[in-house]
Amino acid sequence: MRLDGKVALITGAGSGLGRESAQLFAAEGARVAVVDIDAERAEHTVQLVERQGGTACAIVADVADEAAVTRSVETTLGAFGKLDIMFANAGIISRGGVPTVAGGEQVEFQDLTDADWQRVVSVNLSGVFYCAKAAVPAMRRNGGGTIVATSSAASLVAYPAAAIYSATKAGVNGLVRGLSLDLGKYGIRVNAIAPTHGMSPNFLAPTGAPVVGRSYEEVAGPWDPAVSPIPLKLNRPPSLRDNANVALFLASDESAYLSGLTVPTTDGGTLSRVAMAFDEDAAAS
Ligand SMILES: NC(=O)c1ccc[n+]([C@@H]2O[C@H](COP(=O)([O-])OP(=O)(O)OC[C@H]3O[C@@H](n4cnc5c(N)ncnc54)[C@H](O)[C@@H]3O)[C@@H](O)[C@H]2O)c1
To answer: Largest alpha-carbon pair distance within the chain?
Structure first.
């Protein structure tokens, strides 16, 4: 097992990638602190982990609140005695973000408010800073550790109506690079994943919606690789587990000499495309 004897704290673990990772990390031997702003979701993830024979505890915290994040680490240390892995995964989209995908509220850029900006920055960027800051003392006592953050493909390319979101995720990439340089001497590695496909539709759903537990592509109906925008045409859709597997790699000792990287996960070649229109079939023949 890749995480035998390890203790992991995962934020945003009540749904989507966080829940999938809690289940995967536990299956790989980790005891998991399941942190979410939504108590019911966190409790449900703990039940799922326990049902598969794993060990987890639920912690309710808003990652935008530094004191709450610090308390989450203290609670984890109280329950499990140490912290090896901090997976700072919780994140939110800005109001009106990616409207073409969500079919939701349309918000013109000039109508976004300072409160919109502050909330997304607080959760997506300050939240990762608070998680790293709270984890480092425990990891230093432990002789090292690994911090993984969830960034996004939106940190690397543009998405419609997602400028605030993209800025926060690009900030996460920079934070990870800087922290990796400062923390390497303590045996602490810092990396991010930038999911592109295979992610959680709950992300664009209202808070309190039932947790889907499958990816956009899995719920979209029969999978047709020929019409998928993903250049790598596998015979199955990308899944939350595909993304969680990369988080697991970065959390485990298998990536012992990787730090400071943002890895585009479950990308399928999308980010390898050129930013101009051309006939791909003609180019391939
Ligand atoms: N789903 C996507 O389209 C997509 C794509 C790329 C990256 N991401 C990133 O993936 C990460 C995980 O999101 P997901 O796709 O699994 O979405 P999700 O909505 O399914 O899960 C996110 C979880 O985080 C919790 N959460 C929200 N705000 C929080 C806060 N302030 N404090 C603590 N918990 C909070 C939610 O209650 C939810 O359970 C996020 O950082 C997101 O930005 C998502």
So the answer is: 61
Please give the residue range of the domain that contains residue 145: 7-284
Q: Is 130 a catalytic residue?
A: no
- What's the residue count for the chain? 285
The model's pTM is: 0.97
Instruction: Assess contact for 34 and 7: CB atoms under 8 A.
Output: no
Residue 103 scores a pLDDT above 90 = no
User: What token pair was written down for 263?
Assistant: 């890895």
How many CB atoms are closer than 10 A to CB 122? 19
Whole-angstrom distance, CA of residue 212 vs CA of residue 218: 10
Q: Are the CB atoms for 127 and 134 separated by under 8 Å?
A: no
Q: How far is the CA of 280 from the centre of ligand 1 (A)?
A: 34
Q: How close is the Cα of 28 to the center of ligand 1, in Å?
A: 22
Mean pLDDT to the nearest integer, 127-139? 98
Of the candidates 130, 159, 165, 216, the residue annotated as catalytic is 165
| Residue 107 covered by a domain | yes
Q: Collapse the DSSP code of 122 into the 3-class scheme (helix H, G, I; strand E, B; otherwise coil) and give the result.
A: helix
Output the domain CATH number for residue 165: 3.40.50.720
Q: What does the alpha-carbon distance between residue 221 and residue 67 come to, in Å, rounded to a whole number?
A: 43
Q: Is 13 in the pocket of ligand 1 (CB under 6 A)?
A: no
Number of domains observed in the structure of the chain: 1
Return d(Cα 108, Cα 92) in angstroms, integer.
Answer: 18
Q: What is the pLDDT of residues 84-100, one digit of tens each?
A: 999 999 999 998 887 65
Looking at residues 42-68, what average pLDDT do you find? 98
Angle of helix 127-141 versus helix 163-183 axis, rounded to 10: 20
Q: Is residue 2 part of a domain?
A: no
